Amino acid sequence: MPSVILNHFQQNFPKAKDIEWELKGELYKVEFEIGIMGKDHDVWYDKNGNILKHKEEILSSELPEEVIVTLNKHYPKHRIKDVKKISQGSDVQYELEAKSKFLGEEWDLVYNANGELLSKKAD
């Protein structure tokens, strides 16, 4: 692992634990946990130590208000789980599962920060 990447990682995520590194093509991917609840993070670095993508586990209560309003409108009887915040530069998306035992359906959904649905597929 190049020292420039390790230095940037340690500066950005000093409380990281259970750290696992992997080389994927020309990118360095690190998986780790932070906090008492052990929230999962995946971060992709380029060879210069720049973060290209950051995927982190969040609570559904941490979703932007616009996303929550849209979910409540279109999926009121669904349980929201496996929520992830994905940042790539200034672009932020939210990936989640909406599951309804009552309706017998489960969806993988992706929203932008404004609550616009970007992707929907049956799970």
Descriptive notes:
The chain is of the alpha+beta class and about 120 residues long. Helix content is about 15%, strand content about 50%. The protein is built from two helices and eight strands; from the N terminus they run H-E-E-E-E-H-E-E-E-E. Strands 1-2-3-4-5-6-7-8 form an eight-stranded antiparallel sheet, with no helix packed on it. A hairpin with a 2-residue loop joins strand 5 (about 80-90) and strand 6 (about 90-100). The longest helix is centred in the first third of the chain and has 10 residues, at about 5-10.
By DSSP, the count of extended strands is: 8
Extract low-pLDDT stretches: none
Report on the biggest sheet.
Answer: 8 strands, antiparallel
- List the helices and strands in order: HEEEEHEEEE
The gross shape turns out to be elongated
Strand order of the largest sheet: 1-2-3-4-5-6-7-8
Distance between the termini: 36 Å
Relative strand content: over 45%
**SS-derived structural category:** alpha+beta
Q: How many helices does DSSP assign?
A: 2
CA-atom Rg in angstroms = 16 Å
What oligomerization state is this entry in? single chain
**Helical percentage:** 10-25%
- Average residue pLDDT: 94
